[in-house]
Amino acid sequence: MIAAVAAFSFMDALMKMFAAHYPPMQVAVLRGAASLPFTVLPLLLAGRLAELRPRRWRMHLLRGLLTVVVLGGFIYALRTLSLANAYSVFLSAPLIVAALSVPLLREQLRIGNWLAILVGLAGVLVMLRPTTAGLASLGALAALGGAIAYALSAIAVRVLTRTDSTASVVFWTISLMTVFAAALAAPHWVALAPAHWKWLAAMGLLAAIGQHFLTEAFRSAPPATVAPFEYTALLWGIAIDRVFWQVLPSARVCLGGGIVIASGLYLLWHERTRPPGAPARGPWQQATEQGRMSRPSSTVDDVERQQEEESP
Known about the structure:
This protein has helices at residues 2-19, 24-46, 57-80, 83-90, 93-105, 111-128, 138-160, 166-185, 197-220, 223-226, 232-245, 251-272, 283-290, 301-310. 73% of the residues lie in helices and 0% in strands. It is an all-alpha fold. It is globular and about 50 Å long. The chain has one domain (2-186, 195-272, 280-305).
């Protein structure tokens, strides 16, 4: 999982580089187009293309639209914030997933979970630093909006995986996102500089490497064990910012990010310690399976089957 998060962090750094030269929606298109070959090729070589057949078109369309919002918000945040700052706000997504799962999926949360969610969201406010002069920077609000869309997308995955294969969910999410983003980016499209083609290929390769290690992580251990390592993204973000952009997050961002991470870890710990036989109440697991903010990812089939068995 640490290797997967590292690969995706460097991929996000490349997206930040692209965001300095191209509009956010165009970067989303490039992100999707770079990933599609690496998504389809393994299935083609294994003769498993039949797994791509979709069963719930409306849900696939919804996820495609939500992913446009996720990537658009995150890429805009990368354009105006450091990598670590964008991660700090975006890592609130698992908390939002947990909160929204109650009204949307009718899942149950105990009082301790709600307190953790409220404390975590308070950490987001610490980072946003609302004042009488204005709520926050547009970049921070874009990251928060992307996190909310990501949470809704993660909940949609819970529904989709009851009928559709993981390969189908990943492929159609990326494909539809690319098409929708291309429609929005077309009027302001900027020709790709020749020097950037190699970085585009590197972005797709990093996505494939990250997805491979993510799948192996979930194959080797339960989601509740693997999920906490998702938060190493903030450490990678700080390191990449320091080496490539010579910046470090402020104390306020470190404090707020620490609160968010502590709240998320509490929710994961609570899921691991639930009584045997109790229903799973960890929608943030699906958010981790889906992958970090900028890359829908797959997990192993036994996890998917477990979710189907737990579905009402």
